[in-house]
Amino acid sequence: GGTSLMDSKERKRSRTVNNDLYRSRVAEGMRNIVYRFMLAPFRAGIKLEEMATGQQFDYERQLPGEEKDEDAGQPARWIAPKVEMLAPTEFANDLIGSGDLVQIASNDTTIDVGDPLSGCRFVCAMEIAYEPRIRNFLRNLFRTNAVITTRPTKKGLDNIDFFNEHYGLHLIKGKPVRNHFPLDEKERESHKMRMSLEEGKEFDKEMEKKEKHSCLQFVRILEAEHFGHISLHVHLPYLRSDPESWFDEKQSEFSKRENQHIEPLMQALENVFLPIDVDTDEWNDERRKILEYALIKVILPELEQETRRDLRDAATKYAILDAGDNLRKMAIQGPYRPTALMGENRFIYPTSDLRMVGVCCSTDRREAMYLASTTKRGDLNDHLAIPSGQKIDDHKVRKKVIEFLVHSRPAAVLIGTSGGLTSRFIARKLGELIARATERWNNRLIQGAEEDDDDYEHRKRQIEVDDDEDEIWKCNVELVDDSMSQLFGRSVRGKKEFPDKEVNLKCAVSIARQGQDPLSELTYAWNVASDAGIFGTEMLYLNIHPLQRLLPKSRLLREYERVLCEAVADVGVDINCACNHDHLLGNLSFAPGLGPRKAANLKQNLSRTGKAIASRRSILRKRLLGPVVYNNAVAFLRVREIEQSDESLHPLDNTRLHPDVYHRNNWAVKIATDALERVQNTNEKESFERKSLEIVMQNSHEEVEKLFKDTKMEWEQHYGPTFDVSAWDPRINVPTYAWKDKVEELDLDAFARMIENTGLGKWDSHLQMIKWEFRLPYEDPRKPMAPLSGDRLFHLITGETDASLRPGLIVTGKIVKNGDFGSRVKLEGEIPAFIPLRALADEHVEAAEDIVQVGSVVSAVITEVKKDHFTVDMSMRIEDLKKAPSSWERPKELPVLDDYFDNAAAQRIEQSRQAERDRQIEDQNNRARGVEVPTRGKTGRYSRRACAHPAFRNAKHDEVDRELRDAGEAMVGEALIRPSSKSSDSLAVHWVVKAGSIKMIEVQESEKDTEASIGKILKVKEQPYESIDELLGRHISLMNDHVESLINHRKFLDLPEDEVDERLEREKKENPGGVFYYLCWLEMHPGYASLRYILSQKSKNYTIGITPGGFSLGSKVFPKLDLLLNEFKKNPRAMSSSRSTASSSATPKSSQETEVDSSRQSRWGQANSRPLPPPSRPPPPPPAVSRPPPPPIPYPPNFPPPPPNGPPPGPPPPPYNMPPPPTGPPPRPPAPYGAPPPRPPNY
Q1: How many CA within 13 A on the CB side of residue 223?
Q2: Distances from the Cα of 346 to the Cαs of 378, 512, 705, 734, in angstroms?
Q3: Per-residue pLDDT for 1199 more than 60?
Q4: How many helices (H) and strands (E) does the chain have?
Q5: pLDDT per residue over 222-232, tens digit each?
Q6: What is the DSSP letter of 1162?
Q7: pTM of the predicted model, to two decimals?
Q8: Taking the CA atoms of the chain, what radius of gyration do you get in angstroms?
Q9: Measured between alpha carbons, how far is 1184 from 940 in angstroms, rounded to an integer?
Q10: For the chain, how far is it from start to end, CA to CA, in angstroms?
Q11: Cα(573)–Cα(1200) distance, rounded to whole angstroms?
Q12: What is the predicted pLDDT for the residue at 109?
């Protein structure tokens, strides 16, 4: 990003300089001189334009306004003029001698003092470069011949391996640019000339698919370039390149524009600029110099930038559409269908409103797990908290859960996957408890064999029995993706709806609601406006598309809005439910014809009347909507029958039919009466019409049931009991001739023609809709929410993908148990792994204890990922460790390698890496045998570590520092750890105190297993920690707490020290008798604060350090900031051997303040008296580290700031996340192996 900005500024500066030079050269008369031997660019542009069409140019052509010229129509006007009898040097000398050409000494590199005509050539070259016709011709020719080449940077060579997501993008060589753009009409028609109509359609689809793939690939290339992994070049094909090292950035000579194949462009320019008849070679060389300068120095650089920009725009368009498709898949996911209904077809037995229980499992041991029961409409009915420290296996907890389930009787219990492997464990245990609870309820009226009459009656009284006493309660448990729910739990709307509830409880409520209607949760997230009044900003927190962080947010939101509008239009909106429940109002906002404001106004008007909407007509009668808005939106608003209503519901008010077809025009009623062959009774017209509609709709529904049973029976007769009940769709699986309902007997096409002949318009589509609404009134087009399984379930539970956890990856873990068949290992993130006995060593192993001990940390290579069992097989054999990454199977999830990928170059890079790996393994074996291993010149360089912790980076100081600074506010309070270059037994912690301020903390390691491993003991100033998580939890987190208390203190000013001093001096002048003080940051030293005060005329300061134990001043450490200030106010001149300086000092090293009598009365009271307590004030907000975890996708640093409620939740924590001790804050969610730390998108 920074390099691109610098390049852009350099180009602007160069363009400004060129313009100034051009104006000065024209003023010197060089323009008139050059056109004595060059054709005017505008005429050359006209010739190029006509030649491009394949026509023969007319040299007698006259331009408008030339009719009166004497030489009008002369061919010489269209040919470059000649200078007779003089060579270029003689021509220039004559001009200099006559004074027409003035040669001025200049520092300009474009002017050659020994070449008098160089300035003239510059003027002509600039006019050629900016002639629109020439530029357009060359642009089209450039795109026809241009190619894309990518080369790995030094960082890319270190990080991109065979399984990296950017592998295959870093060595693309000479891929044609035209693959990223659609074919023009002429080229497309030429390809389709000999094709049939169907073949032409297939060709168009194939071309569109190819273009889409190339455009999405280009976005990924831009992503890799943004991360600094590759450099992208758009250029003409190179004339030569070294096949061995073309990708090496140091070998850049061949990539100069002079080495590009510019012959097609030069030939086109020469065809119009060089004279038709023969001229001397010297003069033609002068003309070629002008063309080459214009082409190489001006035109090509700008065409490269234009093409790159157009490639980015085309790729962005497809990426936004692809993101919209991903959101559409989420939006058209139907409500969860419990197992009890899976044996029934959804068109016959729709998924009605069901009670659900949502479960949110916390990854923080200090937080409770919540079960939330919701009503059929999604309102919170009851909840149960299982406090931290209590296990679901405990007898008391089991009893509470069973009673809660019996009281709630949900159709399903949905558990969020954000709890990781804990969620899977809870799901298994809840399944057992649900079986107990359902058995207890279904047998509630049966007296047990060992139960006496009193106990039986007491148990019956304890169970709440509703009117449906014969109900057989069935329930199942399911794991669901709760990323939307985690967002709700920490959002503004969550705080507004449940201001006093815990975050995990709000998440549990949202999980239950998501099972009832996923679309409503999406529209609910959209329906909250940001501080800038922009709707939908919460949607940007969801990981909808892997490339969304690179896309323009405004365009992405417009696409999301369009997708949600289409989804709501397909599904429809229950107007009464939407107006009575805030979490369902979002659906009403997306109803076509409405919007957020009209929907809110409709809800307000309805609440003012105090009654529900009984029919569609009542919307107009009560003036809830205007006539125009009503006409646009009413077909998407369904009205269900409600109890205690004075008005009866029209049968078609709960269909997709517009009232025009059954109220104003009465087409639906006529179809119903004609199908029944009934004669209308004029005395009871309305009841007759409704009765006819009800009979026809009932007949059509019965026909749907009959067709389903017949289809199932016929299938089972031929194929046995393998009929897929859920997949049967009457619109698709039933041919027209099979329908035998009443409405099918009518000729609706003839009826439509009759209506059209009467001049009422075309109603054919409406009549067909009437037929299908009779059969399937307001059927839900969405398929039920599919249960999680396979790769998706594994990813949601562990946070790992095929790219981050796959065979061939070397990871570290802790031995937890040795058995007869091998060793069990616990990877970071609690993922279980197993090393078979035969894979512990290359030689034969009798017992696992001979190789590894319980508690030891080992490094091994993954040989198989068993996703169904959530476990990993590993090997410690040297043979497996030495395998090249390319010898392992490439995961299918990773992108397919491009056809223009240079596989030979990739193999050469891999061979050099393999040699380095072999050397490291050899060194490790030598150390194990006690053989001294040379340092191999590592002095001054960091030693890479085998650590997969998400906060660890095998990088240099500048790289880690840049990563933190680029993230801006998102990383405040976070810390990254890297190997220190001081020694192989030390680490360096980069702690972001505030945006742009990073403090370095040195960590000493001890008890290391190998040079590449992390020490078992980490020390910061003699304070030991046993792991990185403990270091972050007990050191960095506590300092973050103190930073929060500092910046929220009443005396803290977030201003530079000079401005604080000015404020102190100003207040001192206004009140000379007072002593004023403030706290601020010490800008020159990150992690230090400054206590600045003024006693007389000049302000002074004390330097305050921030430590895990509190605030340090001199040799004292104060656990609270107010205690330090109280000590300061006793006597500001002498604070327990503290050191103070004048405000002009910029370093923590202070000069000693003159000591005074400690018994002297202070302006805050007696020195020996107890200090007054600070004024009451609300407690500071929670520390940054207790905020919810951010999502795993790294976002560019130029995003807007996050909303005031903090970043949204991230996905389930991936492996390698060991929980901190109870005294520390919750751990940060780790990213996949080797991935950058999670950064929330800032808006």
Answers
A1: 22
A2: 21, 20, 11, 16
A3: no
A4: 38, 26
A5: 988 888 888 88
A6: B
A7: 0.73
A8: 39
A9: 35
A10: 18
A11: 34
A12: 52
